[in-house]
Design goal:
Length: 78
């Protein structure tokens, strides 16, 4: 899934993000606003993970969103 789609559908995806990274607060999710670099930075800060680990986690999460077909162009047509 293209990150632009994630950013554009951030309001719908915040719950999925919160489910994956439960320590993120609603205020933090609002501030992140779908920006991948902000998300990565907050995950690093809160979880104490390395940049490489965070990038892998985000990539895996991003793939899961594609598999769930939550934000593809095709799903928007229905």
């Amino acid at each position: 899934m293209n990150w632009d789609l994630i950013e554009g559908n951030w309001k719908e995806l915040k719950g999925n993000v919160k489910q994956q990274w439960g320590k993120l607060t609603d205020d933090q999710l609002e501030m992140i606003a779908g920006k991948r670099d902000y998300l990565a930075g907050k995950i690093q800060e809160i979880y104490g993970a390395t940049k490489a680990d965070v990038e892998q986690q985000i990539s895996e999460w991003q793939s899961q969103q594609k598999e769930a077909n939550c934000c593809t162009e095709d799903s928007k047509k229905h």
